[in-house]
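Q: For a teaching session next week I want to show students how multiple molecules come together into a single three-dimensional assembly. I've collected the sequence lines for a complex. Could you give me the predicted structure tokens for the whole thing so I can convert them for display?
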Amino acid sequence: MIPWPQRQTLPASAEALRDEVRDFLAAHPPAPAADIRARSWMGFDADFSRALGQRGWVGLSLPREYGGAGGSAFERFVVLEELLAAGAPVSAHWIADRQSAPLLLRYGSESLRQELLPRICAGEVYFCIGMSEPGAGSDLASVSTRATRNDQGWLLNGSKLWTTNADRCHYMIALVRTSGQHGDRQQGLSQMLVDLSLPGITVRPIRDLAGDAHFNEVFFDNVQLTEEALIGAEGDGWQQVTAELAFERSGPERIMSSIALLECWCAWLRRSGGGSADRRALGELASRLAVLRSMSLAITAQLEQGESPVIPAALVKDLGTGFEQDIPDTLADVIGRHDDAFADEELMRTLAYTAMVCPIYSLRGGTREILRGLIARGMGLR
Amino acid sequence: MSDSLFLDSIKPLFADISERFSGESQFDAAGAWSELVATGFLRLMLPEQDEGAGLDVTEGLPVLMAAGYCALPLPYAETALLYAAQPTLAADDQALAVGLSTTAGRAKALRQDLPYLQALLLDTAGGAERAAVSDSDSGNWTLQGIPSPCETTINLQLLGTAAECLQLAGALQRVLELTVDYANTRQQFGRPIGKYQALQQQISVMTGHCHSAVMAAQLAASGMQRSDTGLSLDHHRVAAACGMIKAACQPVVSTAHAVHGAIGVTEEYELHHYTRRLLAGRVAGGSESRWFEQVGQACLDSDASVFDFTLASLS
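A: Of course. Below is the structure for the complete assembly, covering every listed component.
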């Protein structure tokens, strides 16, 4: 069985950050149009990331010796949820802050930490994650991109797919095969730090159905990496990736992806008046938001205590992404009851955008069906 | 005494009373109530000056949920919360519940399956009243004498619904456990049915509903603050939490029965004690739509964003 969630309240020190973040956002306002803010953590703005880094809110929970603010997971929670609630463009530093920096702190060499972590915390250096490949999606252990040892370090060949922001990032942390064959599965995998400016790398953007190009395909043709590129131990890539994915599940970003639409609709309801079905929908969505946020905070408390609640985090991610996807579904139905809603172009653009992109909410970072298998095993079904 | 010690010391009695209720043709409800009174647990959330244990609702929550987990056929959680809301109600150790409007000398309790009750608390135009009752005929209780005014100002409908929902959260926990156990035990096609992905996916979704409900129960409890004079309800937080627990009932019942197959709908197997409670409890005091609509109205009436309303009023 998965342990039942235990409610936590935010410590006062974390709650106190809320007004500071709001002041910062007043000085660095996100886009006025809701359909732009609906890009949520896919909106890329390097100037914003640097300003946030100067404020100490990138790598907030990293140790001070590496440029972090030495803050708590609760403080980071408040900063993230405030940025997401406002629709701030956090994409540039997002992966570095959320996954790469904790990974480097845990498994990186001291010289790598000294070199990279302060620049991440400054909001200047951006990372992407090389996991999926053309033949390896949910079945991640079947990656075939290979790094082969040579006298200068490692020679990298292969390709990665669906790599968010590869065209705008400085580094990729890639899961690659360093020994064995395809059939060896989780054995023989390692994580490599790839400087995306190296010769032999081609990045091809892939346009999505909303017209944006955040995905990429990345090709490696005899890319020479140094010995230092290996992160952690050779052959431990699978265990490291599993630990890394626990950082990416269950945070506020797995609840808030459709918040711009929800707020835009609520503002419209206040202007135009709604009926019983609208009030019921609004009440249900707000109630779900409250419970999910409390569940996310409960996981944050476990992380803060040094635990690794991989399966409870998977459960919250499944619930959270379901909520994010139900928002455009529910709202399409209730908005469609009002003829005058069609005249509100911002609302309709935001609805159309969110409804079209929301399928990815339960794909990115591990599909819903894989997570549910994980949850079932956590419940003792084997 | 810590929360879990409270729970450990009362749960066996809850389970025992429940077993007697389902196993004996002549269940002595009044006798079982006397046993509960003797434990002192009805005064769990009364101040120490009223001979109570002084717990707040959050601390008492595991015990309140355990009543639902055990399908306790007595209004323990209802009574304990009403005593906490209005300590003078505890004076004579009576079994209480919140009731619905009266017609021709009769009234219903929000929870309709109760075999035993001594008085109902009723909301009337002139304020709250306490009505002694006897003899239930299919959930219709006969009023005894003239109802007396009750000095509480608490929203009885919401308190009664919350008492029901905290028990439902416990019942949801029990149904999840039974379902996982059964999926691991029952074999078909040569292996436990819990090995099949189709069932794993359904049970994962069910787990999500149950975990949400347990968190919602904690939010509801945190919205019921105790003071020297009784309880005050944080209306929207409690209403939102009740809506979430009620919304979990039907999908959990559906999956539990689907996984159990035919054995799940027999009188002999225990599942129906809990699923019956969940289906009735979802409606008792108002379904999720009633409470969600109130929350939605409150959000519209505020000037805040949905996110800020959620932080300020629901969390």
